[in-house]
Amino acid sequence: MLTPQTIVSVLVTYNPELEGFARVLRALVPQVSRVIVVDNGSSKSEVVAALVEGIDATWMPLGLNEGLATAQNRGLQAALDSGAAGVLLMDQDTVLHPDVVSSLTSLHNRLQAQGVPIGSVGNAFRDTHDGRIAAVWRAKGWRVVRTTVEANDPDPVEADFVIASGSLLPGPVLRDVGLMDAPLFIDLVDLEWGFRATARGYRHFQSAQVVMDHTIGAGRVKLAGRNISLHAPIRNYYWVRNALLLAKRSYIKPGWRLFFAYRAFVYVAVYTLKGEAKSKRLRMMLTGLYDGLRGRAGAIDEVR
């Protein structure tokens, strides 16, 4: 059985906005037994370190940007080594509502008591750019189906993955499934872990009784009546490349593999039309297509 007192939180930072990050920590620290902040080479790391240590969290600097997945793995391993029964993954701009962790541990325990093999549990989240609650996506056959989430719904919704920020992962599951896929570096890391856990028989659930505020990307633009998230050009590279890498993995459901293969090319078209630095975006995404098709993973030099 999980309780907030048995949970360690792993939070990855990279040049956080200090005032907002302080709010994140103050909301998080009272809800878990320990917070490990893994810093991915922030330019003013000493300032971030002082803030972290002043709010009674553990500081783990990497010195350079080794990627989100590697940073998460450093924190996850430290949490498991310390005896954590479960790990709450967090990012630097998600402010938790009170009692989120107790709500997640209760959900985990209730489902586990029903004999459900839990891979992860998380909360529904509202995108701060448009105020909408994000939908849940699941593969059914060769399709990926979108399910709308309603705030305060008492029943958890099953998902194929739970986004990393605010997700609770049981320690035994992490030991069985393994840690994050470090060569992916940043994008789609949480999805890949969720798919890998599913392939080993675990299930993922999202609760809407508490809705988190979560920031996706640097902004939103409209295309054909739909809002799409904007990211830096190098993030466009990683998404396109990693989508193609995942499309070739046999343990992932066919619907998701087809989704990633199709979306990688749509993504290139969409982000060439929208956003700033269009020529740089196009160059990075074409490189992502090339690297994804030939199976190249790991970090890339942005000026390549």
Q: What do these coordinates show?
A:
With 304 residues, the protein is an alpha/beta fold. It has 2 domains: 4-214, Alpha-Beta Complex (Spore Coat Polysaccharide Biosynthesis Protein SpsA, Chain A), CATH 3.90.550; 219-294, no CATH class. It is built from 9 helices and 12 strands. Helix 7 (233-247) runs antiparallel to helix 8 (254-273) and helix 8 (254-273) runs antiparallel to helix 9. The chain starts with 6 loop residues before the first strand and ends in a 10-residue tail after the last helix. The model has no long low-confidence stretch (mean pLDDT 92). InterPro entries: Glyco_trans_2-like, Nucleotide-diphossugar_trans, RhaTrfase. Keywords: Glycosyltransferase, Transferase.
